[in-house]
Design goal:
The chain is an all-alpha fold and 274 residues long. The chain has one domain (3-269). The protein is 78% helix and 0% strand. It has twelve helices and no strands. It is globular, with a radius of gyration of 18 Å.
Length: 274
């Protein structure tokens, strides 16, 4: 077993767990971390980046099991709150799953690069800054209060997450806030919305690209990275929920803008830090 490869996989898992649910683009950070560490071949690394996101989403399922189970069973039992949340999540998941299946591979081939990541970070940062400076009136305090119409709009906004650097969490959280959803409810809805999207994308990508992996060691590397992302994400989820209860996302706006400009500078000049 290549211990250095496992160490790099662990670092990638930590990066995924920390960034998946923050509005700063987990995919963008993983692409950059992969290039920085010269992690695996590009083919394997691109699949790894998608696959280990399932570890982070497993942390959401673990942390919110009771509420998610209520949404699932509510679809059958008719319990109002659970049924409403379940229908909202299903409808909000449809747009990105349709677009992802149709154009996901093309997007990965064309936009999985540092310039796309930089532009996505900067544009997203400017949008977060604007929303925090002009906060809309809140009409949905809890995740169960999000209307079906709002859920569909959030689902359409989530399609932007196919562009590296945009951030699925950033798009859904800020998009929900623009529609009048509270910061806490927007964050939780973003958590839940990631479940079908990320699991679907991970399974599809592994199915389409399993041939690039060679033997048991490669799959152990993916498994180890996924486990590390689960633990890291579980910690981050608890910290983030406490954070958004008291603070805004302005720090992430500035982080995105500054880091995007630095990445763009290095990409356009050809300078390297490594």
């Amino acid at each position: 077993m290549d211990l250095l490869l496992l160490l790099k996989a662990a670092i990638m898992g930590v990066v995924e767990g920390i960034t998946e649910f923050l509005p700063i683009s987990s995919t963008g950070h993983l692409i950059l971390a992969s290039e920085l560490m010269n992690f695996w071949t590009k083919e394997k690394s691109d699949v790894f980046v998608i696959a280990i996101q399932m570890g982070a989403i497993a942390a959401v399922i673990y942390e919110y099991w009771a509420k998610l189970w209520g949404a699932a069973t509510g679809l059958v039992s008719g319990e109002p709150k659970g049924r409403h949340l379940g229908i909202s999540l299903i409808l909000a998941s449809i747009p990105i799953m349709l677009i992802g299946v149709t154009f996901g591979q093309t997007v990965k081939e064309l936009l999985f690069n540092d310039i796309s990541v930089a532009i996505g970070l900067i544009v997203g940062g400017l949008i977060i800054w604007w929303v925090e400076k002009h906060p809309p009136k809140v009409n949905a305090q809890e995740v169960e209060n999000i209307s079906i119409k709002e859920a569909v709009y959030i689902g359409l906004i989530q399609v932007l997450a196919l562009i590296p650097g945009t951030s699925r969490s950033g798009a859904t959280i800020i998009g929900a806030m623009m529609l009048g959803v509270s910061r806490k409810a927007a964050t939780e809805f973003s958590f839940f919305l990631g479940i079908p999207v990320i699991i679907g994308a991970g399974v599809l990508d592994l199915y389409q690209s399993y041939h690039v992996f060679e033997g048991t060691q490669d799959w152990l590397v993916i498994g180890f990275g996924t486990l590390v992302s689960f633990v890291s994400a579980l910690i981050l989820i608890r910290v983030l929920v406490a954070y958004v209860a008291k603070r805004d996302f302005m720090v992430f706006a500035w982080y995105r803008i500054v880091s995007g400009l630095i990445i763009l500078l290095f990409a356009l000049t050809g300078w390297r830090l490594w």
